[in-house]
Amino acid sequence: MSVSSVTEGIDQIQFEHVRVLVLKDTPAGKTTLVDTGFDEDGDELVEVLEREYGGVDRVIITHGDHGHHGGLPSVMEAFDPELVASANESKLHEAIDYEPDVTFTDGDVLDGNIRVIEVPGHTKATSALLLEDRGILISGDALDGADRAGLPAGYLLPPPALFNDDHEAAEINLYDLLQYDFETLLVFHGSHVFEDPKGKLDDFLVEREWDPRPE
């Protein structure tokens, strides 16, 4: 496990198979945790959050995969934070014993000027989070760093088909991200992309066998 700065105001806590993100002073005066890793990461996550940040005020869960909500019971028991999750992610609601304090759907804006963009396909309601005032997009597993698949770092791919509920939808729905402006794209698997992530995503989608955008 390691803790490092990703960009100003955002840290990552890296576990063996997944990372979580910590948004400092978001919203103002509060600390937000995005996802919680696997259940076996929970105790260590709590220790790090206590040591590095004095706790956490809010947890946002991006989707229902176990590696993104498994540590939630440990975090909830330790800090009793506000829990924020998709209203439509049935996989998550079936897996956790907590009722979210705040639920969101596509297009909602959370405290801290975080816009929710649902990208169905990986799961029913996988949600990316756009920090609109900073041009930072958190993928929520709608995208991985390409080096997860053994390709060069600095590029993007959808998660492997093996991990997607509907792989075709997971690719087609990525076009929705191109409606938004972002200069940095943060992922939970593989390397983050800091140079022209929107352009690289557009290039990837154009080279697919289909392109649903109008001429």
From TrEMBL:
<dbReference type="InterPro" id="IPR036866">
    <property type="entry name" value="RibonucZ/Hydroxyglut_hydro"/>
</dbReference>
<keyword id="KW-0378">Hydrolase</keyword>
<dbReference type="InterPro" id="IPR001279">
    <property type="entry name" value="Metallo-B-lactamas"/>
</dbReference>
<feature type="domain" description="Metallo-beta-lactamase">
    <location>
        <begin position="17"/>
        <end position="192"/>
    </location>
</feature>
<dbReference type="Pfam" id="PF00753">
    <property type="entry name" value="Lactamase_B"/>
</dbReference>
<dbReference type="InterPro" id="IPR050662">
    <property type="entry name" value="Sec-metab_biosynth-thioest"/>
</dbReference>
<protein>
    <submittedName>
        <fullName>Hydroxyacylglutathione hydrolase</fullName>
    </submittedName>
</protein>
<dbReference type="GO" id="GO:0016787">
    <property type="term" value="F:hydrolase activity"/>
</dbReference>
